[in-house]
Amino acid sequence: MKSRKKHWEDVYHSTPTDQLGWFESHPEPTIELLKQCSLTPESRILTVGSGTSTFVDYLLDEGFRNLIATDISAPALEQLKARVGELQQYVDWLVDDLTNPTFLNQLEPIDLWHDRAVLHFFTEEQDQQSYFNLLKQLVKPNGFVLIAVFSLEGAQQCSGLPVKNYSAEMLQEKLGSEFRLIQQFQHLYTTPGGNPRDYIYTLFQRT
Q: What is the value of pTM for the model shown?
């Protein structure tokens, strides 16, 4: 069976960014939640499973200068790094596995954990536990968690892989009582191929 790392490296080698099933030219739903976090240019923002996400471009364009982008796929990060050009100096680039981290678990605390379309690929309980353990280790008191994943009404597969669908209540249960739900909403995204994908967007704050 192909490893997770090999799967995603193959995806980013073979598919142009704007044809990926999760591509957004402008990440409006994420930006809507980000604006509620009252972050400063020096806030530490970690985008997990960043791939070639345009959210990183947006953050840099808005003046954020303390970013971390991580993905299991080195080709994805290289593409993103090339795209942002000279602004790449304001991003720490980490090739790592969220479920078995080598570098991420050594990071200093962060102000925002951002995940769009990553968590739902972890279908094994052990991988989910590793993900949330890392999140809880890194997010500061009063820090934020922004997670967007396939909703309970969403697709059952993506990129040829099975997914786990979530509700806001399920995410709350995983995060525990230390985290308070600030906002949630459903968002119907349409892939570049024209297929609908039903997401749940959530913003939590650590108490």
A: 0.92
